[in-house]
Amino acid sequence: MGAPAAPVDAELFGRRREQLLGALGGGVAVLAAAPELFRSRDTDIHYRQDSNLHYLTGLTEPEAVAVLTP
Q1: What's the predicted TM-score (pTM) here?
Q2: Which of 6, 63, 66, 67 is the most buried (most CB within 10 A)?
Q3: 66 and 30 in contact (C-beta within 8 Å)?
Protein backbone atom coordinates (compact mmCIF):
# COMPACT_ATOMS: atom_id res chain seq x y z
CA MET A 1 0.00 0.00 0.00
CA GLY A 2 1.05 3.55 -0.65
CA ALA A 3 1.09 6.45 1.71
CA PRO A 4 -2.28 7.67 2.99
CA ALA A 5 -3.88 10.49 1.02
CA ALA A 6 -3.53 14.00 2.38
CA PRO A 7 -6.69 15.49 3.86
CA VAL A 8 -8.80 17.48 1.42
CA ASP A 9 -8.94 21.23 2.10
CA ALA A 10 -12.52 21.93 1.01
CA GLU A 11 -12.15 25.71 1.35
CA LEU A 12 -9.05 25.79 -0.85
CA PHE A 13 -10.67 23.75 -3.63
CA GLY A 14 -13.86 25.82 -3.33
CA ARG A 15 -11.91 29.06 -3.83
CA ARG A 16 -10.21 27.59 -6.89
CA ARG A 17 -13.54 26.57 -8.41
CA GLU A 18 -15.06 30.00 -7.71
CA GLN A 19 -12.11 31.68 -9.40
CA LEU A 20 -12.52 29.49 -12.49
CA LEU A 21 -16.28 30.05 -12.65
CA GLY A 22 -15.74 33.80 -12.35
CA ALA A 23 -13.36 33.71 -15.30
CA LEU A 24 -15.87 31.70 -17.35
CA GLY A 25 -18.48 34.44 -17.03
CA GLY A 26 -21.53 32.22 -16.70
CA GLY A 27 -20.11 29.28 -18.63
CA VAL A 28 -19.92 25.66 -17.58
CA ALA A 29 -16.77 23.57 -17.06
CA VAL A 30 -16.71 19.79 -17.49
CA LEU A 31 -13.58 18.04 -16.22
CA ALA A 32 -12.98 14.32 -16.63
CA ALA A 33 -10.54 12.09 -14.78
CA ALA A 34 -7.48 10.69 -16.48
CA PRO A 35 -7.94 7.17 -17.85
CA GLU A 36 -6.48 4.18 -16.06
CA LEU A 37 -3.56 2.71 -17.99
CA PHE A 38 -2.41 -0.90 -18.10
CA ARG A 39 0.97 -2.15 -19.26
CA SER A 40 -0.25 -5.69 -19.75
CA ARG A 41 -3.04 -7.90 -18.47
CA ASP A 42 -1.30 -8.47 -15.15
CA THR A 43 0.71 -5.26 -14.63
CA ASP A 44 -0.96 -2.01 -13.61
CA ILE A 45 0.58 1.40 -14.06
CA HIS A 46 0.33 3.67 -11.01
CA TYR A 47 -2.74 5.90 -11.51
CA ARG A 48 -2.20 9.64 -11.76
CA GLN A 49 -5.20 11.92 -11.76
CA ASP A 50 -5.64 14.67 -14.37
CA SER A 51 -3.88 17.74 -12.98
CA ASN A 52 -6.72 20.17 -13.72
CA LEU A 53 -9.39 17.98 -12.12
CA HIS A 54 -7.24 17.39 -9.05
CA TYR A 55 -6.33 21.09 -8.72
CA LEU A 56 -9.97 22.16 -8.75
CA THR A 57 -11.57 19.33 -6.77
CA GLY A 58 -8.98 17.23 -4.96
CA LEU A 59 -10.52 14.09 -6.48
CA THR A 60 -8.18 11.15 -7.00
CA GLU A 61 -10.67 8.51 -8.17
CA PRO A 62 -10.52 7.15 -11.73
CA GLU A 63 -13.61 7.69 -13.90
CA ALA A 64 -14.64 10.80 -11.94
CA VAL A 65 -16.31 13.72 -13.71
CA ALA A 66 -16.83 17.22 -12.31
CA VAL A 67 -19.40 19.57 -13.82
CA LEU A 68 -18.96 23.12 -12.54
CA THR A 69 -21.82 25.57 -13.02
CA PRO A 70 -22.32 29.14 -11.77
Answers
A1: 0.78
A2: 66
A3: yes
**Contact present, 68 and 28 (Cβ < 8 Å):** yes
Residue 19, CA distances (Å) to 14, 55, 68 in order: 9, 12, 11
For 10-47, the pLDDT digits (tens) are 999 999 999 999 999 999 999 999 998 877 777 778 88
Task: Tell me the CB-side half-sphere exposure of residue 27, using CA atoms within 13 A.
Answer: 9
Cα distance between residue 1 and residue 14, in whole Å: 29
